[in-house]
Amino acid sequence: MNKVRFVVATSLVAFALAAVVPASAANLIEPGYGTSVYLTHSVSSESITSFDWSLSGATTYYQTSTSSYNFGGLFTWINDVQSTAVAGNADYSGASVVRIDDNIYYNTSSTGYKIWKHDPSIGATGATQVSMAPNWGLFRRKAGEMFITGTPNFSSPNEVFRAALTTAGNFESPPVSLGTTIGSSGPLAFDTLGNMFYAPGYGDKSIYRYTAADVNNSVADPTNTPLPSPAERLWWDYSSSFSNSSGATGLAVDDIGNLYITLTDFSSPSFLVKASANGTSGFANYHTILSSTRGLGDVRLRDGSIYLAEGNEILQVVPEPQTVSLVLLGGAALLWFRHRRHGSF
Q1: Environment class of 44 (CB within 10 Å of its CB; exposed 0-12, middle 13-18, buried 19+)
Q2: Where are the domains of the chain?
Q3: Distances in whole angstroms, Cα of residue 248 to Cα of each of 48, 74, 228
Q4: Which of 52, 86, 153, 217 is the most exposed place for a label (fewest CB within 10 A)?
């Protein structure tokens, strides 16, 4: 295996999923949730690594990885119909699909890292390569910018990068490193106040929290005020609670500061975990929502539901109403929440 392939295999370690089986293998653990399959990709041997919605919310975009970890394609899902936005190729599949402004971005790698832009407004298939900056994950904070986690080479630690985007959705200049974290590259997410959470994908079973001031100061002057050292920003060490986990594959934060994390492993069960903050934004507690014998990919929040990639499917997990609400609404409400596939909540 050459160096590039080794870097790719390591950076995507949490996406080396077991053989996909047609039916969901998710097992709900926490009472008070209902789950259903939101969509199923037509090729059962491919795994969905990441997904996001169009600006209008009408279209779901997702990327797949083949059983050989090659790029299976970028696909759309509209009214239960699957279509191909970008055909698969020999590149290695990346870990991210993210909408920023009107554009859909995703990543692949071969002889180098690649970030691609798909423009839905032109009404055509295909994508334009916009960068070869080191990357593992692509993330949205606000309009006109992209945050990136990645490592320049196998021997380097992960870094957090920021890129400013033009009105056309291209990079104004190469992404700028805001600082070095720890472990291999993994997901990050922002809360409503601009605080940034980061979870290594391998090599460190912890989650770190950087304040909005940390992030803004590093954006303003990355040379003199880079992100603080991870040791100063440790939020939760989950190594004793999930000792078999290899690391995080997805991370999302709700409006009140709760984190939803997918923790994935090669051979042990993977988990969707909810971690809550205390009144001072420190870690308070966690509970495990579900486990799966298939590796879990990205996680996102939308309209009161949790969505996560599991094998060749995207699952929808819905918090169910409390017992008193069920009494008021009737038993039909429970069935509606359990089996609904689309719409808002």
Answers
A1: middle
A2: 3-339
A3: 15, 22, 21
A4: 153
